[in-house]
Amino acid sequence: MTSSKKKILAISGSTKQQSVNLAMLKAIAATYSGRITVDLYDGIDKIPHFNPDKDTDTPPESVVDFRNRIATSDGVIICTPEYVFSLPGSLKNAIEWTVSTTIFSKKPVALIVAAASGEKAIESLRLIMSTLDATVPANGSLLIKGAKGKIGPNGVITDAETEAKLNTLMDNFLRLLDK
Fold first, then answer.
1. pLDDT for 138
2. Number of C-alpha atoms within 13 angstroms, CB side, residue 117?
3. Domain boundaries, the chain
4. Can you provide one Gene Ontology molecular function annotated for this UniProt record (predicted)?
5. How high does pLDDT run on average in the chain?
6. Bridge partners, 112 (sequence order)
7. 6-177 CATH
8. 35, pLDDT greater than 50
9. Whole-angstrom distance, CA of residue 23 vs CA of residue 16
10. Which of 13, 117, 133, 173 is in Cβ range 3.0-4.6 Å of 110 for a Cys bridge?
11. CA-based end-to-end distance of the chain
12. How far apart are CA 161 and CA 142, in angstroms?
């Protein structure tokens, strides 16, 4: 196990300023600050709609920034809500800009869906990350159903069972990063 902090890119699938997903990523960053340095990506709403004709050697600057931040991170944590039984369009759009690259290939990724329901979003996110050849560890994804009743406005989990599951997810993710 290494003693240096790992650089993690944290991506919220929500563009809402008071998002429980964003608050949760901030809480994870604070809780694990002794082991990881978190780069909280806040430009998901600035990435243009995916257009294969613009996915050239000179893609839009916001896309270049997003890709570089993934490429230079040791791992990625995605925390997202579910909109209409799927991923938010802004998150899916951002991920689509990575399809022509290999930046997610073998990249350690942890997946969290915090939503009212969330089954379809977590299923979709797992499939997408598998397609991109990302490395999601065993117990590396977490579905938090009824998130508003289990996560405080500061992002701290208020439900003991959910907190235990998040700790397991983070332990497995950090173990993968240390390999």
1. 86
2. 10
3. 6-177
4. FMN binding
5. 95
6. 79, 142
7. 3.40.50.360
8. yes
9. 11
10. 173
11. 7
12. 12
Instruction: Tell the residue number behind the tokens 């332990």, with chain if given.
Output: 171
The string of pLDDT tens digits covering residues 88-119 is 999 999 999 999 999 999 999 999 999 999 99
Residue type at 79?
A: C
Alpha-carbon distance of 120 to 6, in angstroms, equals 30
Record the tokens describing residue 66, joined without a space: 């997003």
Total residue count of the chain as it appears in this document: 179
The DSSP output letter for 171 is H
Provide the 3-class DSSP secondary structure of residue 37: strand
Q: What is the C-alpha separation between 14 and 140, in angstroms, rounded? A: 20
Please answer whether residues 148 and 114 qualify as being in contact, where contact means their C-beta atoms are separated by less than 8 angstroms. no
Instruction: Write the DSSP assignment of 114-168 as a string of letters.
Output: EESS-HHHHHHHHHHHHHTT-BPPTT-EEEEETGGGTB-TTS-B--HHHHHHHHH
What DSSP assignment string belongs to 40-93?
A: EE--GGGSPPP-GGG-SSS--HHHHHHHHHHHTSSEEEEEE--BTTB--HHHHH
